[in-house]
Amino acid sequence: MSVIALFLLVALLIPILGIVVDSPIGRALARRLEGPQEAPADVVALAKRVELLEAEVDDLNRTMQGLQDEAAFLQRLLATPAPAPLPPSPES
Q1: How many Cα atoms occupy the beta-carbon half-sphere of 62 within 13 Å?
Q2: What is the rounded CA–CA span in Å between residue 62 and residue 70?
Q3: Helices 24-34 and 2-22: angle between axes, nearest 10 degrees
Q4: Are 20 and 26 a contacting pair, CB within 8 Å?
Q5: Per-residue pLDDT tens over the stretch 61-84
Q6: HEC profile for 13-67?
Q7: pLDDT digit string (tens) for 9-52?
Q8: Cβ neighbours of residue 30 under 8 Å, at least 6 residues apart?
């Protein structure tokens, strides 16, 4: 009796195992077991270029902010009225 039960258990586990291995979860587990894969050289070079461009954009943003601050300061300086001229000095 136990031999028949064992045979049925194995016979039922084979299709279940096939379904699990072919599922997205099984594929994800297989990729994890394979380990990390190296990215192609083109992707690495592209990632490096994107990183450099992002740094350049950040630098340009900082420069633009400085220029905006300077322009606002000059605008305020030009908008303030000029002080009254000094009275003429009394000549002795």
Answers
A1: 5
A2: 12
A3: 80
A4: yes
A5: 999 999 999 999 999 999 988 788
A6: HHHHHHHHHHCHHHHHHHHHHHCCCCCCHHHHHHHHHHHHHHHHHHHHHHHHHHH
A7: 888 888 888 887 788 888 888 888 887 777 788 888 999 999 99
A8: 21
